[in-house]
Amino acid sequence: MASRNAERRELVTRGTGNVFADLGFPDAAERQAKLRLVFALNQVLDARKLSQSDAAKVLGVPQPKVSALRHYKLAGFSVERLMNLLTALDQDVEIVIRQKPRSRKAARISVVAA
What we know:
Blueprint: H1 4-7, H2 19-22, H3 28-48, H4 52-59, H5 63-70, H6 79-88
Protein backbone atom coordinates (compact mmCIF):
# COMPACT_ATOMS: atom_id res chain seq x y z
CA MET A 1 0.00 0.00 0.00
CA ALA A 2 1.43 3.39 -1.01
CA SER A 3 1.72 6.11 1.57
CA ARG A 4 -0.40 9.24 1.29
CA ASN A 5 2.67 11.38 0.58
CA ALA A 6 3.70 9.17 -2.32
CA GLU A 7 0.27 9.61 -3.90
CA ARG A 8 0.35 13.41 -3.69
CA ARG A 9 3.58 14.30 -5.46
CA GLU A 10 3.18 17.84 -6.76
CA LEU A 11 5.62 19.92 -8.71
CA VAL A 12 6.76 22.94 -6.70
CA THR A 13 8.27 25.89 -8.52
CA ARG A 14 10.38 28.40 -6.63
CA GLY A 15 9.10 31.98 -7.01
CA THR A 16 11.17 34.81 -8.42
CA GLY A 17 10.63 37.02 -5.37
CA ASN A 18 8.13 39.12 -7.30
CA VAL A 19 4.65 37.64 -7.08
CA PHE A 20 3.48 39.90 -9.91
CA ALA A 21 6.12 38.47 -12.26
CA ASP A 22 5.23 34.95 -11.13
CA LEU A 23 1.60 35.67 -12.05
CA GLY A 24 2.61 36.98 -15.48
CA PHE A 25 1.86 40.70 -15.11
CA PRO A 26 3.69 42.66 -17.84
CA ASP A 27 4.28 45.58 -15.43
CA ALA A 28 5.48 43.36 -12.58
CA ALA A 29 8.49 45.51 -11.63
CA GLU A 30 6.36 48.65 -11.34
CA ARG A 31 3.70 46.85 -9.30
CA GLN A 32 6.34 45.47 -6.93
CA ALA A 33 7.93 48.92 -6.55
CA LYS A 34 4.55 50.49 -5.77
CA LEU A 35 3.76 47.79 -3.24
CA ARG A 36 7.03 48.34 -1.38
CA LEU A 37 6.60 52.11 -1.41
CA VAL A 38 3.07 51.85 0.00
CA PHE A 39 4.26 49.35 2.59
CA ALA A 40 6.88 51.88 3.75
CA LEU A 41 4.28 54.66 3.73
CA ASN A 42 1.86 52.59 5.82
CA GLN A 43 4.62 51.77 8.30
CA VAL A 44 5.23 55.50 8.84
CA LEU A 45 1.50 56.16 9.23
CA ASP A 46 1.25 53.29 11.74
CA ALA A 47 4.25 54.55 13.72
CA ARG A 48 2.76 58.04 13.89
CA LYS A 49 -0.69 56.67 14.79
CA LEU A 50 -2.34 59.09 12.37
CA SER A 51 -6.04 58.78 11.61
CA GLN A 52 -6.93 58.68 7.94
CA SER A 53 -8.22 62.25 8.08
CA ASP A 54 -5.05 63.49 9.79
CA ALA A 55 -2.91 61.56 7.31
CA ALA A 56 -4.88 63.12 4.45
CA LYS A 57 -4.05 66.61 5.75
CA VAL A 58 -0.34 65.80 6.06
CA LEU A 59 -0.21 64.15 2.65
CA GLY A 60 -2.37 66.75 0.90
CA VAL A 61 -4.79 64.18 -0.51
CA PRO A 62 -8.48 63.44 0.14
CA GLN A 63 -9.24 60.93 2.90
CA PRO A 64 -10.57 58.30 0.43
CA LYS A 65 -7.11 58.25 -1.19
CA VAL A 66 -5.56 57.52 2.22
CA SER A 67 -8.09 54.70 2.67
CA ALA A 68 -7.06 53.27 -0.71
CA LEU A 69 -3.39 53.40 0.31
CA ARG A 70 -4.10 51.80 3.69
CA HIS A 71 -5.84 48.94 1.86
CA TYR A 72 -3.10 48.64 -0.81
CA LYS A 73 -5.43 49.68 -3.64
CA LEU A 74 -2.79 51.20 -5.88
CA ALA A 75 -4.73 52.11 -9.02
CA GLY A 76 -4.27 55.80 -9.72
CA PHE A 77 -0.95 56.06 -7.86
CA SER A 78 2.28 56.34 -9.82
CA VAL A 79 5.67 55.44 -8.38
CA GLU A 80 6.53 59.15 -8.49
CA ARG A 81 3.40 60.14 -6.58
CA LEU A 82 4.07 57.52 -3.91
CA MET A 83 7.63 58.81 -3.51
CA ASN A 84 6.26 62.35 -3.10
CA LEU A 85 3.84 61.13 -0.41
CA LEU A 86 6.75 59.58 1.45
CA THR A 87 8.67 62.86 1.33
CA ALA A 88 5.56 64.61 2.71
CA LEU A 89 6.03 62.30 5.72
CA ASP A 90 9.65 63.48 6.10
CA GLN A 91 11.07 60.33 4.54
CA ASP A 92 14.07 60.55 2.21
CA VAL A 93 13.68 58.55 -0.99
CA GLU A 94 16.86 57.68 -2.87
CA ILE A 95 17.14 56.34 -6.39
CA VAL A 96 20.38 54.51 -7.16
CA ILE A 97 21.31 53.52 -10.69
CA ARG A 98 24.09 50.99 -11.26
CA GLN A 99 25.27 48.43 -13.78
CA LYS A 100 23.62 45.04 -13.27
CA PRO A 101 25.95 42.22 -12.30
CA ARG A 102 27.04 39.90 -15.11
CA SER A 103 25.67 36.97 -13.15
CA ARG A 104 22.09 38.23 -13.57
CA LYS A 105 20.39 37.88 -16.98
CA ALA A 106 18.23 41.01 -16.87
CA ALA A 107 18.35 44.39 -15.16
CA ARG A 108 15.72 45.06 -12.52
CA ILE A 109 13.96 47.73 -10.51
CA SER A 110 13.91 47.30 -6.77
CA VAL A 111 12.72 49.31 -3.78
CA VAL A 112 14.40 48.79 -0.43
CA ALA A 113 13.11 50.44 2.74
CA ALA A 114 15.78 51.10 5.34
